[in-house]
Design brief:
By secondary structure, this protein is an alpha/beta fold. 41% of the residues lie in helices and 17% in strands. An eight-stranded mixed β-sheet has the order 1-2-4-3-5-6-7-8, with helices on both faces. Strand 1 and strand 2 form a beta hairpin. The longest helix has 17 residues. It is globular and about 50 Å long. It starts with 9 loop residues before the first strand and ends with a helix. The relative contact order is 0.15.
């Protein structure tokens, strides 16, 4: 049998509250942990390259949320698809794996899911790496604002959400703002669309979009956490993102005195082009702690 190296990726599943939660894991078991929480419309697959980049020095773990990727997809009647509940499951996942204090990497949906847990249990935080995960009004880009303006027009809102689940729109979210679109692998957006097109998933995503507005009132709470706790914060942000715009990245410096912010010439899924650069920034940042 071939021996696995420390950078070999394992593909695992753990039962959490009667749900099968899939996760990718790599790196030495006794190394510092980095937990990677993915965004929409992706899965832990968005971290496939970064995991390899980090696994020589860190114990890297990247789960799929319920309703996403390879994790369980309970029906709407069996699971409450809200950001509160996704955070509950991810907290249980953390406890099931016995994780205690570690670095959080948050992108897109990973922001509101992660910050719900972090503000409740700040002792879990070694450091935060923020990638196009917004907690400031000034970071809300035109794509988010459009959805917001439709909150009181259910028919138009549902049509807009359904459009975001099409292959053309998922591809656009991956390539828009890229410095070189030819560096963006089609595997990412093709696989994301495949997962979103499975039976019952569109209804799940609609439920989460309809619940997304619960995140905005929590921004002051999350900002207060940053001001009070002053966790080490590294921000790596695709500055051409039209979902969460670059002022949202700079805003972290307002609440965290020593926040380190890097604006990269990319889009919402900046790792498609810059995973090696981001890994180097993470290595340098964590080495200084």
């Amino acid at each position: 049998m071939k021996t696995l190296t420390t950078t070999s990726v394992l593909y695992k599943t753990v039962t959490v509250n009667n749900l099968d939660i899939f996760y990718r894991e790599a790196g030495p078991a006794d190394a510092p942990v980095i937990l990677l929480l993915h965004g929409f419309p992706s899965t832990s697959h968005m971290y496939r390259d970064l995991i390899h980049d980090l696994a020589d020095r860190y114990h890297v773990i990247a789960p799929d949320y319920p309703g996403f990727g390879q994790s369980s997809i309970p029906a709407l009647t069996a699971f409450d698809y809200t950001f509160d509940n996704l955070a509950v499951v991810m907290e249980q996942f953390i406890d099931t794996l016995g994780l205690t204090k570690f670095t959080w990497y948050l992108q897109d949906y990973g922001g509101p899911i992660g910050f719900r847990i972090i503000t409740k249990r700040p002792e879990l935080v070694e450091a935060l790496v923020i990638q196009n995960a917004n907690v400031y009004d000034e970071g809300l880009g035109p794509d988010v604002q459009i959805i917001g303006t439709l909150q009181h027009d259910e028919k138009a809102l549902l049509a807009a959400i359904a459009d975001k689940l099409t292959l053309s729109r998922i591809k656009e979210e991956h390539v828009f703002g890229a410095a070189d679109p030819e560096r963006v692998s089609p595997d990412g957006y093709e696989l994301a669309h495949f997962y979103m097109a499975r039976p019952g998933v569109e209804e799940i995503q609609i439920a989460l979009f309809l619940n997304y507005g619960t995140n905005f009132p929590k921004y002051p709470e999350w900002q207060q956490y940053l001001r009070t706790q002053q966790p080490p914060v590294l921000v790596v942000w695709g500055k051409n993102d039209k979902i969460f715009t670059w002022p949202g990245a700079e805003a972290y410096k307002r609440d965290v005195e020593n926040a380190e912010v890097h604006l990269l010439d990319g889009g919402h899924f900046v790792l498609e082009e810059y995973h090696e650069e981001v890994a180097a920034l993470i290595h340098d940042f964590l080495r200084k702690l």
